[in-house]
Amino acid sequence: MTITADRTEVDATGNDAPPDTGGGPKSSARPGWLSQHVGTALVCAVIGYVIGHWFGNYISSDYIYIANSGSNAVADTLALALGAVGWLAGIGALNYPAAKMIGREAKSSETVDHWSKYVRFSTDHKVVGLQYIVGVLLFLFTGGLLAMAIRTELLSPTTHVFGPGTYIEIVSEHGTIMMMMASSLVVGPLGNYFVPLMIGARRTAFPRIEAFSFWLFMAGYGVIVSALPYGGFPTGWTGYAPLQTQAGVGMISYLLGFAIIGAGMMAAGFNLLVTIIHYRAPGMTWSRIPIFVWSILATAALLCLATPVLFAAGMFGVLDKTVQTAFYVTEHGGSSYLWQNLFWFFGHPEVYIMALPGFGIVGELMPVFTRKPLFAYKVAAAGMIGVALLSFFVWQHHLFQSGIDPDMRPLFMLTTELISIPTGFIFLVGMGTLYKAKIRFEVPMLFVMAVFFNFLIGGITGVFLSDVPVDVTVHGGFFVLSHFHYTIMGGLVFAFMAGVYYWMPKMSGKMMNKKLGLAHFWTMFVFFNLTFFPMFIIGLLGQPRRVFTYAKGLQGLNDFSSVSAFLLGLSFLIFLFNLLYSMWINPVKAPANPWDSLGLEWQTASPIPPHNFDRIPVIMADPYHYSEEGAPPLADFGAGPRENVSAASASTATSVSEE
Amino acid sequence: MSMRGRLTTVLVLFLVAVGLVVLCVAAFLKPGTPGGVTDFTKSQPAGQPVHLVAQTVGSIGFGPHPTWVSYMVLNPTTHKWVQDTTWKLPAHTKIDMTIEQFDSGSPLRNQEWGQVQGTIGDSMQLNGKTVSVYDSYTGTGIGHTFAVPTMGISVPLVGVNGSDTLCGEGPCSLKMPHNEITFSFMTGAPGNYPWQCFVPCGLGWLYGNGGPMSTQNYMGGFLDVVNS
Amino acid sequence: MATIWVIASVVVDVLFWTLLGPHMAPGRLTSTAGADQTDFNILVVIALPVMIAVWVFLGYSIRTWSAKRGGPEPVGGEAARGNKKVQTIWIVTTTVIVLFLAGFGTVALIGDHGSGGGEGPNPIWAPSGATAAETAALTKSDSWSPSSGKVLVVQVIAQQWKFTYRYPQFGGFETTQLMLPADTSIAFNVTSLDVIHSFWAYQLGVKADANPQENNVAFTDTKSPGSFIVRCSELCGLWHGAMSNNGNVVSPSDFESWATGTEAANAKNTKLLAPFAWTYVPDANGAAGGYYIDSNVTPYSNSELYGAKPSS
User: Fold this and answer.
1) Is A608 within the bounds of a domain?
2) Which chain C residues contact residue A390 at CB under 8 A?
3) With a CB-CB cutoff of 8 Å, which residues 98-157 of chain C face chain A?
4) What is the pLDDT of residue C137?
5) Which of A585, A618, A635 is the last residue of a domain?
6) Is the pLDDT of residue C216 over 60?
7) Which residues of chain B are within 8 Å of residue C286 when distances are taken between CB atoms?
8) Do A76 and A175 share a domain, yes or no?
9) Does residue C294 register a pLDDT over 70?
10) Radius of gyration from C-alpha coordinates of chain A
11) Same structural domain for residues A198 and A301?
């Protein structure tokens, strides 16, 4: 067939060895202790930290402000920066560029076939995906514990468990850690793992950059958590200047942390963007790529374009705090408005970076569990691109009362209202897919339904906030706080859970326990709503955000919210237990395609060989031909019988390959 | 490993994690008031005025930030000076406050705080002289203030001459240069009343409000007013 | 399904409008508060049917089309992949609702003199007489009285961690109390001496950020006497949560006696205060300095001066 020629062309572009059956082990020898892994990364990070700290003290301890205040921001900046560099050097992320820079041949990056690959710099996108799962869960639980501390403090307006100073440290740390996690929550683990599989590729475009993004993500965790021993930072996750310039050295952890995470986000986004554009299998036209891939495409574009602004803003902040520039200090020629605008120019696309992958997961899972094609696929894809484009034009709605030019307010009210149109498309698509379907309420589908419920409330309250007169009352209080928890946690985190339960059998070969999953879902859904719905009322009754005390009359509602929050925390423990139980304590082997999905990622062998596909498939249809008589097969996987695929996948209405 | 073994391992690791979390909280997110609470409710029979003596020092001399300015209070039972800014006071009682001010002064950023407000007679005694408005642009300026915003109290604490040798480590003895400021106020209903200094006295921080001004137990605290 | 939706929407909307609506935040103490409340209620009345529609559909689908219940097999193919009519109706309806809300919001914003939100140093929607009052306030001789019908100019100075208020029409005295006369247009001029704060007078329906060296103007029209609470709503450091005070709207004559009385009582200190201006450059000398090596400060720009230049 003429298609064969195309396939070999595709094969030749990759660095990977040509596929052989079973994908034989590349290196079965156990790598030694001194080879590069997370342990060497830690050691090098500590060395870098110490060198940086010493050097910073050496050059700056006689600066007047350092002598006066008793704290050395320069030393801490250099310490954290060199610590991050040491971390990356120690894991081996810098080996290839360093070798090339001195003109030597770099060792070809091979993935060792040993369990330690999960703690090494791995260029297999599947390994990186699983590493990201551990990473995001680390962020999630750290941020979640801080949330429990917040709700403990707010149990009483007069008894101060933590006190005002520690409380704003906790609030700031919680917000920052959660936002850092949420920006990569789906793109990192599920995007990296499944996008190549879904588009029929063997790898992503830049595997080294992909691994680099993960290890940057973990370096970011170290840096942001270092804020706590440094005394924290008092600005909240929004980091407004000039309070940022006034703050102690903990602020450097925030600024550098965001810069490092930002670099990781840019790397991940860039990699996935190029992968989706250039590495699609033959026949995988734009109208055949899964909706999840569309969402990652839109998200990746935002990651590439919006994050550099945060990086620059953070660097200005570091300069202000170390060498006394005055970017954000008004009376020396700067402006407090500069940070606000730079931050929110990034900040608004950032929240769509969080929302779009959630929509992608919802769109991807619905056809599987309703046995119907995705309704209005083109509208869904157009909606995601529309949201991504429009998200650059709405940022001033965070600044309605800041003293911006009053002419701007009707303009940004209009653009913000307009963005709710493409955002609403996911509901059109969801409801259309549910219409006259046959819904199987498996655990992933329950989470998908919860996303619809939660995002409805979150999205509608967003429309309230975009109305400037109403915003005068609800901005800066618990109403807006509840709005973004409903959209980010109620939308994205629930969708992430759906994705984990859905794809875990493919990633690990084991099913997640259904009973525990149901317990997790119901506790999480019920207590999430019980925690955050009262916060709308609290906000309307006048409680601002980030305050350690409030009007006595609001104690009842705050206590109700706090107790529900503790129970919500418990639901996450159930999730963690389910994960450990299903993966390790009592694993149950999963069939190759337990959900009977038509997705291309499910048509691979189980476990997935390192090179993904024995032969690059030629795509002949989109993966949504459910319940369709005489539908075309999904793809042509090559002549002859396919090995390593169980017969279960052939039971779907469309057969996978026929020659 | 058997299933039981794995379950036990998970449980043990979970408890280790919980322990680590508790350690981190205790180390970095210290709950409670750092300096404890100084109790003034038992120092006098009920209904009698409470005498509260405090001092403001130019550098505390000890602890994690020895160069920072700070308040100290005289514990009414042990008669020892402690660095503590959370004071428990009885409700509906007259408080006679004496502050020994050991730090140098400067002009106020907002001269509004040069006016004595919220005390009995809307005035204070500065080294024996009654003062109701202090011009911070003259003389030695204002060193710190004692203000309880939710009770409407604000008292400027006049600075000492900066060219004298000042006390550099708390608690300062009355032999060192200082100003004695006394005033009285009534506590109201029980509640939690934050108090702070309104002079931006954080040297080396932008706008002077970082460092000691932004850390508990240095230049701000709570009046814990309770029913005795 | 449709009938359930219509009935539920009408019932819930009517119940909301009559029972909850009049009590919604932030109350009706001033014109801006009342307008904010009405806007909010209208938004709820439009939002509720939308939400009920989605909920009814979701509930119906869970009940009727669940696999457990059995029922007919779903049908794939072109008909299930899209329906031009449904898509068009959806897109058109959402666009119409959204454009209506944007237009309605703009009209409300203009009609209520900026709806109590901070408009920056050069506000464009102001009550009549505001520009004149603001310009006159900078001369040292302007005054306000109940019968003058003038706009009352109040400067809100935010500092870490208390709001203070200056009344330029009463000699520029400064006080920690916020008293306002009823039946008057008020112009709040909000500025900061250090970091960013936000002046939020809840029952007045006013919120304006306080930026260093920027004048942020917000307007409201008081109606009847009442009390309100002011809270800082932008995180400004350690005592942000404690940065609040009560305020009162009193009858115009009571206000005048309070103002003239306070002006007299504070006269000695008022002479020592910084001359009244829309913004103040915080001094960076003495203990408050030591961050930038030289304590020379350059004021940001003069463009934030409202109306006429101040007379020196």
Assistant:
1) no
2) none
3) 98-99, 101-102, 105-106, 108-109, 112, 114-125
4) 84
5) A585
6) yes
7) 106-107, 141
8) no
9) no
10) 25
11) yes
- Across chain C, mean pLDDT equals 87
Please give the share of chain C, as a percent, with pLDDT higher than 90: 59
SS3 B110: coil
Would you tell me which residues 37-56 of chain A have a C-beta closer than 8 angstroms to some C-beta of chain C? none
> C-chain residues within 8 Å CB-CB of B69?
287
CATH for the stretch B35-226: 2.60.40.420
Give me the percent of chain B exceeding a pLDDT of 70. Answer: 100
* Backbone φ and ψ of C54, nearest 5°: -65, -45
Q: Is B33 in CB contact (< 8 Å) with chain C?
A: no
Share of chain A above pLDDT 70, in %: 91
Two structure tokens written together for A191:
């995007």
Give B207's Cβ-side CA count (13 Å radius).
31
User: Can you read off the two tokens belonging to residue C221?
Assistant: 């029209």
Q: Decide if A606 is inside a domain.
A: no
pLDDT tens digits for range A596-608: 999 999 998 878 8
The predicted pLDDT at position B48 comes to 86
| Whether A99 and A130 share a structural domain | no
Please judge whether B202 and A158 are an interchain contact, meaning their C-beta atoms are less than 8 angstroms apart.
no
**CATH code of A147's domain:** 1.20.210.10
In A, minimum Cα distance to B217 occurs at A165
Domain extent, residue A346, equals 122-585
C75–chain A Cβ distance below 8 A for any pair:
yes
* pTM over 0.80, yes/no: yes
Strands (E), chain C: 152-159, 162-167, 173-175, 178-181, 185-192, 197-201, 206-210, 216-221, 226-232, 244-250
| AA letter at C80 | A
For residues A21-44, give the mean pLDDT.
65
Structural domain spans, chain B:
1-31, 35-226
Phi and psi angles of residue C74, each rounded to the nearest 5 degrees, phi first: -70, 155
Last residue of a domain, one of A75, A103, A131: A103
State the virtual CA torsion across B207, B213, B214, B220 in degrees, nearest 10.
Answer: -150
Retrieve residue A575's tokens: 């999730």
Residue A382, token pair as written in the block: 């157009």
Q: How many domains does chain A have?
A: 2
Question: A134 and A74 in one domain?
Answer: no
Q: CA-to-CA distance for A443 and A441, rounded, in angstroms?
A: 6
Query: Which chains form contacts with chain C, at 3 or more CB pairs under 8 Å?
Result: A, B
User: Could you tell me the pLDDT band of residue A495, with boundaries at 50, 70 and 90?
Assistant: very high
